[in-house]
Amino acid sequence: MTENPETPTVVTAHREIAAGAERIFELIADPARQPRWDGNDNLAEAPEGQRVRGTGDVFTMTLTNGAVRANRVVEFEEGRRIAWLPSEQGKEPPGHLWRWELEPLGAGRTRVVHTYDWSRLTDENRFARARATTEDRLRASLDRLAEVAESD
Question: In which band, very low, low, confident or very high, does the pLDDT at 5 lie, cut at 50, 70 and 90?
């Protein structure tokens, strides 16, 4: 990878949300709910009935540009952690990963960590978009997720 060494390839944001981990995890693990709180304004819709149940699951998502992505779940712990590798349908993932980690803090509060890791990204055509996925973008998703989780 011929990337500027000063550009971080693993970006993380976190915040405390006034909702239980189970509630928040349901919003993340059900792809049909993700466009509602996506801070990248990149997700248009996902078919109902794709709730993630374990590693190896694949869910599809339509992006705002009309492209469809297949997302292979590579980490999963119910209520605590989920991560996936997106790819074009029928193709191998190019190596970028989205991860969510939840830590219950008690009394209906949860620390949520959101990570975008493109350290293994092999498709140079995606580098500009990867660089644009900053901590602020991740924080926007966390803030929107908090709004939904705390209000519903």
Answer: low
Whole-angstrom Cα distance, residue 91 to residue 62? 16
Give 34-39's long-range contacts (Cβ < 8 A, gap of 24+). 34/61, 36/144, 36/148, 37/141, 37/144, 37/145, 37/147, 37/148, 38/141, 38/144, 39/137, 39/138, 39/139, 39/140, 39/141, 39/142, 39/143, 39/144
Which residues, 6+ apart, have CB-to-CB distance to 45 below 8 Å? 32, 35, 61, 62
Structure tokens at 68: 């469809």
Q: Using only C-alpha atoms, what is the Rg of the chain?
A: 15
**Structural domains of the chain, with CATH:** 11-151 (3.30.530.20)
Determine which helix (DSSP H) or strand (DSSP E) holds 47, and give its type and residue range: none
Q: How far apart are CA 13 and CA 3, in angstroms?
A: 22
Under the banding of pLDDT at 50, 70 and 90, the label for residue 107 is confident
What is the overall mean pLDDT for the chain? 94
Q: Give phi and psi for 74, each to the nearest 5.
A: -115, -10
How far apart CA 101 and CA 112 sit, in angstroms, is 6
